[in-house]
UniProtKB/TrEMBL annotation:
Keywords: Hydrolase. This is Glycoside hydrolase family 16 protein. GO terms for biological process: carbohydrate metabolic process. The lineage of its organism: Bacteria, Pseudomonadati, Bacteroidota, Chitinophagia, Chitinophagales. It comes from Flavisolibacter ginsenosidimutans. Belongs to the glycosyl hydrolase 16 family.
Length: 284
């Protein structure tokens, strides 16, 4: 990450309607008439997430994280999507003695979780994206709601972390490829204590992305966290491609440990990332 914001974060409290309908407009401010709902998942049906909307990642996937991703750790109950991290021990079916690949060098799986995404099923170019969710801020947890471009290899396809949390900080990140062919980050970080700490984390909050032809703006509870102009986000690999002028698909996951998540310490399990709804609007 190439930027950090320190100091006190101005936190605003937003009240929410208890009902869950497409008429719930938290996060819209005064410009609701400019948008129409184009896709949503309200997670109102108990059971597995809708397979017409979501696919699963499986196994050890990225960032040397501690968890093994599996389908059974994502489920809908009482109007929420629950992504549950569990501490459990089982053999790693991909284990290879002597392997230098971190995915294969681990003999056992010590933690499980879930990661779901809309790749190949739904993607969007521009719009207002909303998620109402509750995150746990215990040590080592790494929940995220993010997007990736449908074309190109990472980071040339572009990444937007609308919500990301780890090591006591809430992050709002955007990345393209830099001149060194590594990710070039436009990132702001906010100490969770400045937002209210555990009391803040005990409630649900609305994360929002406004993405159009000019800029990407990321919010929580209508407070701006990061705004970056698309003109800055052209890939620096000589291609001239802007990865944010293409459709993106979204991902929801609860990762553990790894390169950024930190030490799990005395974190209690099972542990949950709970999502009330995800909605996508586009301008009329």
């Amino acid at each position: 990450m190439n930027k950090a914001i320190t100091g006190v974060f101005a936190f605003l409290t937003v009240s929410f309607c208890a009902c869950k309908t497409t008429h719930d407009v938290a996060g819209f401010g005064t410009d609701i008439d400019r948008y129409k709902l184009v896709w949503a998942d309200e997670f109102n049906k108990d059971g597995k997430p809708d397979t017409t909307a979501w696919r699963y990642e499986k196994g050890f996937v990225r960032n040397e994280e501690a968890q093994w991703y599996q389908e059974e750790n994502a489920f809908c109950k009482n109007g929420l999507l629950v992504i549950e991290a569990r501490k459990e021990s089982k053999p790693n079916p991909r284990y290879e003695a002597g392997s230098k690949d971190w995915r294969r060098s681990r003999q056992t799986i010590d933690y499980t979780s879930s990661s779901i995404n809309t790749a190949g099923k739904h993607s969007w170019q521009y719009g207002r994206f909303l998620m109402r969710a509750r995150i746990d801020i215990s040590s080592g947890l790494w929940p995220a709601w993010w997007t990736l471009g449908v074309s190109g290899r990472w980071p040339a396809n572009g990444e937007i972390d609308i919500m990301e949390y780890y090591k006591g900080k809430l992050l709002a990140n955007i990345a393209c490829i830099g001149a060194n062919r590594k990710a070039e980050w436009y990132s702001n970080r906010f100490p969770i204590d400045s937002m209210g700490g555990q009391k803040w984390a005990s409630g649900f909050h609305v994360w929002r992305m406004d993405w159009d032809e000019e800029a990407i703006a990321l919010y929580v509870d209508d407070v701006l966290l990061n705004k970056t102009e698309l003109s800055k986000l052209v890939n620096k690999d000589g291609s001239g491609i802007n990865p944010f002028k293409q459709p993106h698909y979204m991902l929801l996951d609860l990762a553990l440990g790894g390169m950024n998540g930190g030490d799990l310490g005395d974190t209690k399990f099972p542990n949950r990332f709970e999502i009330d709804y995800v909605r996508v609007y586009q301008k009329n």
